[in-house]
Amino acid sequence: MQYQKNINFLLGQNRKKIPYMVLLFFLSSSFDIIGLGLIAPYITIVLSPDNTLIDSLYILTFYDFSNISSEDLIILSSIILLAVFLLKTVIAVFINWRIFKFILDTRASLQIKLARMYSDLNYSEYLKKSSADAIDNIQMLVERSCNAIQSVFRTISEIVTILFISFFLIYTNILAFSSMLLLIGTVSFIYYLLFTSKSKKYGELSSVANRNLLKHFQESSLGYKHLHIFGGKDFFLDRIGSAAKKLSSYALKVSVISSSPRYVIEFVLILFIVILILVSLINTNSNLDLITNLSIFGLAAVRILPSANNILNNLSQIKFGNFAINELSSELKNSIHTNKFVSYVSNHHTINDFNELLISDLFFTHSDTKQAGLNNINLKIKKGESIGLYGPSGSGKTTFVDILMGFIKPQSGSIKINGYLIEECLLSWRSKIAYLPQETFIIDASIKENITLGEDKENYNELKLKQSLEMSMLSDYIDSLPQGINTNVGERGTRISGGQKQRIAIARAFYFDRDFLILDESTSALDKESEEVILKVINKMKKLKTFILISHRSSTLGSCDRLIKIKSGQLIH
User: Fold this and answer.
1) Cβ of 427: how many Cβ atoms within 10 Å?
2) 386-390 and 562-567 strand pairing
3) Which of 300, 315, 337 delimits the end of a domain?
4) DSSP string covering 136-151
5) Domain membership flag for residue 359
6) Do 506 and 473 meet the contact criterion of CB atoms below 8 Å apart?
7) How many domains, the chain?
């Protein structure tokens, strides 16, 4: 019951389409029965095309065939049979298309929901979230959940088909049908008890192995240089190999469990047909009756074989996806019933031009420590000022900046921008800020796309782009590149230097016309020459922009209007 509730929750608005899907299943099954119903008359007409026998056929009593020749009747019945099976094929393809579209739409919807949920996490929860878990959830967890949901629908479809065929076979020969049902039902039930229930366990273990594989690969990828220097490459390769082998082992077991029913049921159906022939030969002298029964049950067996196999296979997939369904539902439900998500964002007031930032009696304590992160902070920054912030590691510099950008909410005190509380204008305030950390945010795209981040490729402002390149002193460098501004910088900017990455980040700030720039150790990893270029750019824009520079180097802060030391969570002017 809980499994069904979780599926309904994941389907969201798509669950309204379920009655329509079930109706399509009934339509498809109806054509299966019509097709089977035509087999017996068709075989009879071909083998014994006499009018007396034809008139007795229930399927053809809607029309008088007494005046039609045997050859014409065979041609007509062949056309009818082909037309029915052609229509049945078209309907089956259409239903498959609808199922695939339904599932793929659901998958896209779930992936968008998860991506939005992770982007809406508040900052403290974002720091706790493993990127490997998030990637696994968006990729594998959604994929397995949708496969399980698809298996549920296909199971319903196959059950409806088997029920329709069963009713027809009961009408045709109840004894033969009962024997077939007993054989297939017993074998399927035993197989389900022995194997299918294990798929749930393998599904859970497989998800854990996949997350470990992603996690270890990400760690080894990010630490490429360190692993080659310190010799830890084999350690990570062993961990990746272990996770990959476990994932492969669980996938193998599930694949064997899923594929084996076909061969088992195939054997059982052959056994049934042999028994049917032997019993028919003993109990009847009519070869026509034997051929007719064999044709009907043989064709029914051909149709039931994949259906029964699909049901067992789907039940295995449903069990395998049980863990994914429950985990994904829990993950999404948390977004509704918890306070882990951004609520500290509003825009009651708009900031057109930054004039003044006022911090009064600010106090903040980290939840995992009793020590005050920031204690009684008071500071005023006016437009065009450049403030140098320095202090030892762990003194609270990054925490101060995070609060300033609205990612962390202080326990007490206030921050006002142009006289408005930050809570009342946070969206507008963020639209005036540019944040440049030591590890610059660079995407695997061209220089132009990195600067015009988020804007349409065709509709960017070319004049603003050119001006931002000149102000960030990137023009000469770009002119020297064969592909110019369309040069791809590589993943995390691996194809360009650290100084160039920082200048791209500054150009981005100028392009989006940000008034308040925060440089958090952004030059600390650069050589002296590259740092001097960045400082020239900053000095060039002094009085036009407001800067907060955070650094351990005194040379970096030498041109600042004011220097402020932060120590043990307190500002020392």
Assistant:
1) 14
2) parallel
3) 337
4) HIIIIIHHHHHHHHHH
5) no
6) no
7) 2
